[in-house]
Write a structure and sequence with these properties.
The protein is mainly beta. It contains 4 helices and 30 strands.
């Protein structure tokens, strides 16, 4: 009876004792380095739904319409209002469609729905939208706030403080020259500030292979630039400052800070900067590929 009594007492502690002996969780969580979730998913999906809805409308009438009710993701029709080259105003429950090849805002623009530009769009007045689908280039010269996603088929240039939503995608290049917040950014080339001179990496020091650490890591250059040929991975914060060229990926289970002169990846070789809790980019930096965080994304220019 005593044995059974002792066994009953010990049963709740057995999983803990096994964990102490085997240590299943002694290794850090693995971050997937080939981060492959399609950054263009939102724009592609919405574009397909929109195309199918508009295809049911008489094309001859479409060019003359000022607005139209079309079913998108549900049976309830959505109101889509048309503009040609100039757009603005408050349209809280309407999708804004700008038809011109070269369009601009002529007054503040607000909608709780999507803004769609058939060509290029220049934002010269404060703008708020749930999402944006731009089939040309996007130039932002006044504050922009997007709640969900931005999809740009051309190049995107941000010259005013902006909130860039949960997913900011360009098929070509993104240049950001203003303080912004973000969650995820993707482009073939992302420039924070206005470029980095190639001469910065003349006669550099080199580190071959990957750099891994379980502790916080700080890499800072002084008189000589540095090229790191592999990935940088840490369980703690990673801070990189100065003329440092990381040809691999940067991953942190906590935060990543990159400052003044840092380059990640290279043309034609898409890489990732991932900080689980935060990513902060400051000064002139360049990334070829993804920047992603589950927490706070900040750009300081």
């Amino acid at each position: 009876m005593i044995f059974i009594f002792l066994l009953l007492i010990l049963i709740p502690f057995i999983p803990a004792l096994v964990e102490l002996a085997v240590k299943k969780d002694k290794d850090p969580l693995i971050i997937k380095q080939d981060y492959s979730k399609d950054p263009a998913f939102f724009g592609k999906s919405f574009s397909k739904i929109l195309e199918e809805a508009i295809s049911k409308v008489d094309i001859e009438l479409l060019d003359s319409l000022k607005s139209i009710d079309i079913p998108l993701s549900s049976d309830k029709p959505e109101k889509l209002i048309f503009f040609t080259n100039e757009v603005g105003g408050k349209h809280p429950r309407s999708i804004v469609f700008v038809r011109g090849q070269e369009s601009k805002t002529v007054e503040p623009l607000t909608t709780n729905k999507e803004v769609i530009a058939y060509g290029s769009l220049r934002i010269e007045h404060s703008t708020f939208a749930r999402s944006m689908l731009i089939f040309g280039n996007l130039e932002v010269k006044a504050p922009l706030e997007v709640a969900r996603w931005i999809h740009v088929e051309g190049e995107a240039t941000i010259k005013a403080p902006s909130i860039l939503g949960i997913n900011f995608y360009s098929s070509e290049k993104i240049t950001i020259d203003a303080s912004c917040t973000f969650t995820r950014i993707y482009a073939k080339e992302i420039n924070i500030g206005w470029g980095i001179k190639k001469s910065s990496f003349n006669n550099p020091a080199r580190i071959e292979g990957n750099i891994k650490s379980k502790e916080a890591m700080s890499i800072k250059t002084a008189d000589r630039s540095l090229i790191i040929e592999g990935n940088i991975i840490s369980e703690k914060d990673i801070i990189i400052e100065g003329d440092v060229w990381v040809k691999g990926n940067i991953f942190s289970h906590e935060g990543v800070v990159i400052i003044k002169g840092v380059v990640v990846g290279m043309e034609g070789a898409i890489k990732s900067v991932v900080g689980k809790k935060s990513v902060i980019m400051e000064g002139n930096t360049k990334i070829y590929g993804y920047v992603h965080t589950d927490g706070e994304g900040i750009i300081k220019v």
